[in-house]
Design brief:
104 residues; mainly alpha; 3 helices; globular; Transposase IS116/IS110/IS902 family protein
């Protein structure tokens, strides 16, 4: 487990939500490439998909799409953001307090 001061990226490869693409043609151990555990990835991905109904998460997704990201890339970015929020909550021992959107 991570210590209190570790950044969210230190959760390790088992919980990353990135694509994990790697050139397999040059790797002699093709069947043993580490891509993390699929269960946490799937959970974060489905959580991000369900969170699209939330106004804050939906706005974040829309911003990513406006920047030019495709659907899956924007969803993975949202999943990563939710993972970072979860890590901060565990690190600080706090509960989730949604921020109210400000009119800009």
């Amino acid at each position: 487990m991570t210590s209190r001061g570790d950044p969210p990226s230190s959760l390790g490869p088992n919980v990353s939500v990135g694509s994990g693409h790697r050139d397999r043609s040059t790797d002699p151990h093709r069947s043993r490439l580490p891509h993390g555990q699929q269960s946490p990835k799937r959970t974060l991905y489905l959580s991000a998909f369900a969170a699209l109904k939330d106004p804050l998460s939906g706005a974040y997704y829309d911003r990513k799409r406006a920047v030019g990201k495709r659907h899956k890339q924007a969803l993975i970015a949202l999943a990563r953001r939710r993972s970072d929020t979860l890590h901060a909550m565990l690190r600080d021992g706090s509960i989730y307090q949604p921020k109210t959107p400000t009119a800009a």
